[in-house]
Amino acid sequence: MIPNTIGQALRQAVERLTKAGVDIPTRDARLLMAFVLGVEPGRITLMDRDDITFDAAMDFRALIEKRRARIPVSHIVGRRAFYGRDFIVTEDVLDPRPDTESLINAALSAPFELVLDLGTGSGCILLSLLAERPNATGVGTDLSRAALEIAQRNAENLGVDTRCIFEESDWYSAVGGRYDLIVSNPPYIAANEMENLEPELSHEPRMALTDECDGLSAYRAITAEAGMHLTSGGRLMVETGWTQGAVVSELFKDAGLTEVSILPDLDGRDRVVTGTWR
């Protein structure tokens, strides 16, 4: 049945998304309706009885079918809000998540001028830090050329492109100099855990999710050479899976980092490991 009102279209969509097993169908339906209509998501609840055109109804239905196929909303609309800013998101980059904002908060707790973001992806970590610290500059690295192109576009959109550069690099391989802050959200899902992940993750780049090993190889690479790229008193901060904090902390200590600590995410789970170079 072709809906006549926005409310009818939303209710039909929520029913279809629920049957498809989507976790928060009402939220996703409203976000997609807002995208189709070109309005802020908060306005959708006020438009329940408003008429919907045939074209808008068909466009909305097409987007709902994509969501039923478990394509993330961010990939459908091409953007994701992160730390108060919108970032371009495609299938070439990891979808920024609220948990990663814990890393931003931790990094902003002390001054820095030069920051290195290893495995930058969309650039959401590096660019958020630069946007919050107008005097800072930074470098973002990634193995994916496609991801670096997205990061560059995001830098331009946020107006921080003159304060950062992006390099194709396997961790530190193309990195020179020393930094007073190194950050990373590396692939930390073990290969044997991939088949049990939520369907949405199948639409994200596998190399950003798993190291195809035990989920810790990236941390070994990052910590092993951190001392060669940190200034005295410089900080290393990484996001981890919620069960990995203790193990990654030991890698920090073995690499000679001090003041090692584990910080929680918004849900109180271990999420960020931080340490200082002597």
Unreliable residue stretches: none
- What about the largest sheet? 7 strands, mixed
CATH superfamily of the largest domain: Vaccinia Virus protein VP39
Class of the largest domain, according to the CATH hierarchy?
Alpha Beta
Oligomer: single chain
Number of strands: 9
What is the level-2 CATH architecture name of the largest domain? 3-Layer(aba) Sandwich
| Pattern of helices and strands | HHHHEEHEHEHEEHEHEE
Beta-strand portion reads 15-25%
Taken together, the total number of domains comes to 2
Class derived from helix and strand content: alpha/beta
Mean pLDDT: 97
Helical percentage: 25-40%
**What is the helix tally?**
9
How far the N terminus sits from the C terminus, by CA atoms, comes to: 67 Å
> What is the overall shape?
elongated
Going across the major beta sheet, what is the strand order? 5-4-3-6-7-9-8
Radius of gyration, whole Å: 21 Å
